[in-house]
Amino acid sequence: MPRDTLIRILLYPALLLQAAWVILRAERMPEPPGPRNGRIGTGPELRLLILGDSSAAGVGCPTQAEALSGQLPPRLADTVTVDWRVEAESGATTADTLDRLAGLEGASGPFDVVVLGLGVNDVTHSVTLKAWLSRQNRLFDMLTERFGARVVYVSGLPPLGLFPALPHPLRWILGQTAIRFDQAIQRVVEERAELRFISLAFEANPSLMAYDGFHPLPVIYAEWADRLEAAIRADLLLLTGSDR
Q: Which structural domains are found in the chain, ordered by start?
């Protein structure tokens, strides 16, 4: 049994109190205003879906222009015409996202590229690693088989163990769990040719966090967009038939 799981069991009553305290005092940051779909650029068409939780929705940014959806498409616009869409909601787990995606079937898509931002809420909701990986694989299958995604860029979990909003020992336990989830999904990605892993291991600096101590500021979204841009450009020949 992983050490963090054992400690979670032993300290369960205290952790419940800490979690309740965090929920009561937490600053509720809204999803930023702005368009959730658009089209930009010149060249071959690239249909992009950004899917997931509050990170995919851009929480921590004043507007969508500073979120991932506002920063990634312009980075690619000199090479491709990006037809992009955001389907994300604060608090979403992988199970929630499977339901959301099922509701989109027939109404949206297909998509060439999908960027996933999921996992934090699965960790905080105590979803087991086995259940999470099973749901993630179902999600990958749905995206590739029903929505035609050629490549799915799977964003890793951020360093929860460094989030200032969380008190210890809850912070340490969630941080260790997030590390296990992150390592496990990397192994899954390595086994599937249509997946790419994008690390969200950023600098441990509280000044880069929003006032809620849980979401990143636009500078982190910019770095995330940079990493995604590099990965997508490496796949352009596969995605569009052009390596421009």
A: 3-27+39-240 (3.40.50.1110)
